[in-house]
């Protein structure tokens, strides 16, 4: 697994159940509310500081996701994409990178094709059983509770980039 992690240049993820606990909440005006994990956010920043690219592939179209992705300065955003593997292949083509350079983090059935295709396919701890069985790695942390940060730290450690990225946070 560390061999796979050492090759990663792009970290992609689903949102609901990965960056959040999976709850879909609406306020009294019908606006979607999502609870994101701050540790995951700093993990995404660490990835960026280390020179890795990050992105989202989600079947949901959500202004909340757009705001969070912009806040975290994520590089790629594919929303409203039921066929996630198609979005993955589009990005792969644009970047001219082989699958082994990508990590994808998911939690449910729509994520399985990308998990299987990515060089490092990851299921969060509370993912569905078929998703967990399809992954190269299952996190110790649950989605929305630091799983993204866990994966990013594994990748950065495998590439000897974690300490340098942490030093950049302090400057």
Summarize this structure briefly:
It contains 8 helices and 8 strands. With 171 residues, it is α/β, with parallel strands linked by helices. Helix 6 links the parallel strand 7 and strand 8.
What is the CATH architecture annotation?
A: 3-Layer(aba) Sandwich
Got a strand count? 8
Instruction: Count up the domains.
Output: 1
Helix fraction?
40-55%
Ranges with pLDDT <50 over ≥5 residues? none
Rg value: 15 Å
How many strands, which pairing sense, and closed or not: the largest β-sheet?
A: 6 strands, parallel
Q: Return the average pLDDT rounded to an integer.
A: 96
CATH topology: Rossmann fold
Strand order of the largest sheet: 5-4-1-6-7-8
Q: Per DSSP, what share of the residues sits in E-state strands of 2 or more residues?
A: 15-25%
Quickly name the level 1 CATH class. Answer: Alpha Beta
What structural class is derived from the secondary structure elements?
Answer: alpha/beta
User: What's the end-to-end separation, in Å?
Assistant: 32 Å
